Amino acid sequence: MRPPIFGITGWKNSGKTTLTARLIAEFTGRGYRVCAVKRAHESFDIDQPGRDSYRLREAGARRVLLSSPKRWALMHELYDEPEMPLDRLLAEAGGVDLVLIEGYKREPFPKIEIRRDGGASRQPLAGSAPQIVAIASDRPGEEADSLPVFHLDDVGGLADFIAGYLRLATA
């Protein structure tokens, strides 16, 4: 069974990663096990040239699994295959209580839209992007929206909203 998912979306440089990290800290502090999914640029790389895992991947390994006593990671090269669909990525989430997804603004799952003064765009996404159910803003009193509006710094209130919206069991 897939764990509940909730997204944080917004325009570039709106603070998506900052809010996502703060929500992860809030939920883990409440005892939830959280998986984070982040949409990255096409050519991102988590590996370093010259490292053993990089050499194995560059040699042609489709998958490189790294393991240590503290963590493990799986890198999968797509080569000419299309990007992995979100549903297949979510199958890799493991045994967690919640998946927080940064980005994927066009995918149909519930999301909070970040609106920040001075961001890359002032054009709201709500109404054009599917399933935006709340707004997080640095100027909540100025938002004229029918959706619930939270201050960006109200991480506890945002976490309460997400937990209630998803009907998460108390951790």
Explain this structure.
With 171 residues, the chain is of the alpha/beta class. Helices cover 22% and strands 23% of the residues. The chain contains four helices and eight strands. The radius of gyration is 18 Å and the shape is globular. The model has no long low-confidence stretch (mean pLDDT 87).
List keywords for this structure.
single chain; 171 residues; alpha/beta; Rossmann fold; two-stranded antiparallel ribbon; 22% helix; globular
Give Rg in angstroms. Answer: 18 Å
Q: Indicate the proportion of strand residues.
A: 15-25%
Range of helix content: 10-25%
Q: Strand pairing plus helix content: what structural class? A: alpha/beta
Poorly predicted segments: none
Distance between the termini: 18 Å
Give a nutshell description of this structure.
The chain has helices at 16-29, 52-58, 86-90, 155-166, and strands at 5-9, 34-38, 63-67, 72-76, 98-102, 111-115, 132-137, 149-151. It is an alpha/beta fold.
